[in-house]
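Tutorial, part two.
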Amino acid sequence: MYTPASYREQDTAFLHDLMREWSFATIVSHGQDGLLATHLPFLLAPGGHKDLGILTSHIARNNAQWRHFEAGGEALIIFQGPNAFVSVNWYDMQRTFPTWNYGAIHVYGKVRLNQDPEINRKILEKTIARYERPQDGDWSFETMPEEMIAPRLRAIVGLEIEIDRIEGKLKFNQDKSEADRKGVRAALARDVATAPSADFMERLGARSQGEDDDA
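Running the prediction step on this input gives:
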């Protein structure tokens, strides 16, 4: 991923936090049938042979992409954060051009397949526990009858990726003046569709200030 130095994020702990927040990601791989991509929720746990973490998810057995990983093929998993168009009109210094702000994390690693229904049961349990909120209602995975759970387990393949490499790119006007960043944040905050980008800029600013205070 092309990443100028001003946008490069190398703090693994912070990238892990963002991967958990932006956990619905895209897994991309290449096989005999060419490039394939699938959009999946990923869970991140500590560990791995490089101590960069382990990702788990599950894919439909009818999805041909999992065949790419039968021999331990490598995959690229793309996590995406808030993004927004940035107008020059929001800058204090306007002798420049519009751009696009965004956050992206690229993760690389070899995929191990889990075909054991009981391992995949645990993957489903952990995934549901991560996203299901008790206040949403009375449904729970555990109360589903086994005759409904068993076919579901046979219909999925578990994925486990030990992370080999992480690339983080957070492009939010870090190369601009504080006045320019302030103008962008204010403009983005006025629109509900772009407010998450404004909030993330505020977060990055506070984080940068905290790092400066610690220096």
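The two ends are 29 Å apart (CA to CA). In part three we will examine how such features are distributed along the chain.
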